[in-house]
Amino acid sequence: MAAICGINQCRFDKDYFASSVLDTPTILQASFYENTTPVYWNLKLNKIARAHTQVMAEDDCFTTSECSDGSSSTRYNNENYVYESLGENIDCMHPYTSSYSYVRNLVCEDVEYNSCIADSVLTDIEDRNNTMDSAFQEVGIGLAGDSKSTCKNYYTESYGERSDFSYPSHPVVSGAHFDDQNNFFFILTYFEHLSPTAIP
């Protein structure tokens, strides 16, 4: 839940996420991104994300398309998720801190070097683009670990857009407590109609 809250926090209020979460107000600029609607948890996408994350851990393979389970489209089709568009983000981390940390890493794209990649470097920010893509309506999250693998801990976000999806008419609230390197946090996201806001 912390991961989905983090994703939606970024989608709702990109300026807050860039300046306060990533301490990099120069990314997620208005010339490249707009605040957008939330993504909702989907069971099929969650199965896809969890299965691929497990394959990456077991195969010691860090890619969306060249592990033993094939391409993203193959995985979506095998789960009978009928999509208009799809996107997948993957990350790995050792030692593991929190699922929220994966969201930070993926939006920043270069957090291990203590600097985030600029919005203008379009070829290197696919993960950020997926996170902020207004076409995506749903997401699944996968976490898996294998002590014998290179990265030890793996993470997948599987995004989807469906033609038969409809947003709920009522406000949507989600929250999560999580431990990030022995620092405890609570994050709450609130969405009503098409005026999204985030409450840190």
Automatic annotation (TrEMBL):
Annotated InterPro entries: CAP_dom (IPR014044), CAP_sf (IPR035940)
Stretch forming the signal peptide: none
Gene3D superfamilies registered for this protein in UniProt: CAP
Pfam families membership: CAP
Domain SCP: 36-150
Official protein name in the record: SCP domain-containing protein
Organism: Anaeramoeba flamelloides
